[in-house]
Amino acid sequence: MLKDLAALGLAERDGQGRGWRVGPGYFALAAAAGDAGLAAAARPLLRGLVTRWHEPAWLSVRSEGVALTVEVESSHWSSYVVAAPGAVTPLWCTGPGRALLLDHSEQELAELLKAVEFVGGGPLAVRNVRALAVRNAADRAAGVVVADREFEHDVVDFSAPVRDRPGAIVASLSVAVPRFRLGDRSGEIAASVVEAAKKLGVRAASRGGRRDGRPAP
């Protein structure tokens, strides 16, 4: 169990002894999930999505240039997707990450991702900031990110931004579905994730810790 926690950065070896201590990921998770009420409000919505679609659903926030998972409702199919509390995934090639960046301009994306090499991800991931800006613009108009094979091969992420009352994005809500089980449900799944994100946004209206209308990194 400690090895699993260490892989997530939640625990680490004590350099001066043979024991273990809390790792940096623990503090990042605590800071990003500072409003426990947001995670608590997300739980019944996540459960509802899992009950409806029988696929994993989770809540993410932006933390130091990555998408950080802060609340998860698992299903018996969860092994195909990185969805565990404390898990971190890229912003540029995942549904949760791109939903967190939907309001960013191309210039803002370039500044935020200036150190990113756009290597890895799935076969349909973008490979530069310009392509990301174009894809985000289309998804912004739809109000939901449908990331088809952008991170995991043959998996589609459906992610919607969670907004506070002024309209700033503070989190993203996601459901992941393997393509062979998707069928003709894409539109329904996307709509259900958007609806859940809007409901959660009512709670997010009181969330603090933002700077300049954006969630604190």
Automatic annotation (TrEMBL):
Record domain IclR-ED: where: 25-206
Keyword Metal-binding belongs to the record: no
Keyword annotations of the record: DNA-binding
Top-level division of the source organism's lineage: Bacteria
Keyword Nuclease part of the UniProt annotation: no
PROSITE patterns for this protein: ICLR_ED
Molecular function terms from GO: DNA binding
Pfam family, one: IclR_C
Name by which UniProt lists this protein: DNA-binding IclR family transcriptional regulator
